[in-house]
Amino acid sequence: MKHTIYSPFDMHIHFRQEEMLRLIAPLSAKTFAGGVIMPNLIPPIDNAEHLLQYQSEIYEAVNGYDFTPFMTLFFRSYSERELLEIKDKIIGIKLYPAGATTNSDAGVKEMSKAEGTFALMEEMGIRLLVHGETHGFVMDREKEFISIYDYLAKKFPRLHIVMEHITTKEAVDFLDRYENVTATVTLQHLLITLDDVIGGYMNPHLFCKPIAKRYEDREALLEAALKAHPKLCFGSDSAPHPIHKKECCGCAAGVFTAPIALQVLTDLFEKNNSLENLQNFVSDNAIKNYSLTKSNKNVTLVKEPFKVPSQYGNVVPMYADGELNWSILSVQ
Amino acid sequence: MKHTIYSPFDMHIHFRQEEMLRLIAPLSAKTFAGGVIMPNLIPPIDNAEHLLQYQSEIYEAVNGYDFTPFMTLFFRSYSERELLEIKDKIIGIKLYPAGATTNSDAGVKEMSKAEGTFALMEEMGIRLLVHGETHGFVMDREKEFISIYDYLAKKFPRLHIVMEHITTKEAVDFLDRYENVTATVTLQHLLITLDDVIGGYMNPHLFCKPIAKRYEDREALLEAALKAHPKLCFGSDSAPHPIHKKECCGCAAGVFTAPIALQVLTDLFEKNNSLENLQNFVSDNAIKNYSLTKSNKNVTLVKEPFKVPSQYGNVVPMYADGELNWSILSVQ
Q1: ipTM score of complex
Q2: Which of A32, B111, B124, B258 has the smallest number of Cβ neighbours within 10 A?
Q3: B250 and A204: CB-CB below 8 Å?
Q4: What does pTM read for this prediction?
């Protein structure tokens, strides 16, 4: 049994820097036509020069693969001049709301400092990508942030707001509330709950932010993905860390899924009799929501076992040493 | 500033076996007058011979310290003859409800298989110590188990049931519902929430079962402890693991607190203007609830900094390398 996906896009990905960049960029570029590259480097990417330099490093790292890195800028207050200079080079600006608190009013208050820039972005049609968590109790952070999304969506009705890596039923429900709000969801949040992270043994390789939530949350996310909700796009949030940062302090947050994402998604959609919706979930929804051009990259998967390596370089992937039901047959 | 505690008891402690037993038993025996020793060894302690052998190993390990190990038996179906033989050698029988499920009816149904033994225990005045968690979602397991406690407390009104290491507001509230139900609470559950385990970095040294819960749960536990609720006893559940089992797979559940418990508790009670209740919480409540004899051991603490070692042998304690405000001055 075979299945072909045209022009798959990963709308949320961490490529890191230097050796890590050179190790992992090709693993995404091999099977994906493009991806939204997160700007949270050290230092963060918050100017045109840094952005263009990182973009050229990425093109070098993907080393010949047909892959488009959709660049993002790290949110700060930007001047009109700065935004005019950079708007055509980015797919959006990524906001990490350090100021937001468990009290969503306070969160909005903090946010209000950024409203000048939001207004300029709305004017120029620059997308706002948001890590939507407050600083509240770990299981409530996303839920609490919904009121901030609500405030922003209402106040800036022409600003395209992307709720990144949603993990709750509340976020799924919120998707339909405003025209200008879309979302991404990761692979792992369609598959795991908090039980997989700390319910039995503690599993540092499934520790990510936002943390996996309850069964009813996973069900809501999976249902929306399987029916390819038009405002929901696949974004792996694939986030590699060297093995020692995952195991020998158990600290780093992030699950590395890029090299197995398409195989696992194909299996998941097939198992749930939704294979016909996978194309929209991993490609067409993104093309519509972000006005992308379809690439000519076609990935054909075959239902044959794929043994997941224990490591890619010094990075442990999800399902390390496990066997997947689908493999990549060819990429054209 | 000094504070003296008479005859402190740790009503829930894991002493393990062999080298680990010899390493940690003295650390409890130095400052505690006695402790309830958990029976979950490999193999579990479920007969008189094994129990007496383990008890003698403990006496050897505490190596001269004045310390009474209150022995427990691992729950299984026991005959009247077996219970008659052993009842005077144990403080209770510890139940790990492997059969209980998220569905509390099913949980009770499983429990019902054990009712013959419960009835005998009630008859003979043998205490039932319970790890009260279902197999449900990690944050709900204790809450779900309350209905099983309710069933047992009602069905066996003369059976003393101990809710071990409670972690939720629901368990605190349940304490007052039945005459025959008391509880223990650990040090860490008075101090941490899930945020400390996975809210920032993942902290394997604070990973324990039951998992730390929400702020409102911690507040309810702390309030009950600070006022020395007469049915609540200190039980550290101090559970050592070799460092490699905590850090390099992040898997083992348990926090090692025995050597710092009294210092931290004294600080906690002083900070909350409840120092006068500490004696009841760590000693007199246990003496009343378990009909213990007060020992002559007096522990005097002084408000002088104590630097917590990074490790005791190969075990990392809570607050490793941290500084506590109170130290042990003398033990008489």
Answers
A1: 0.90
A2: B124
A3: yes
A4: 0.92
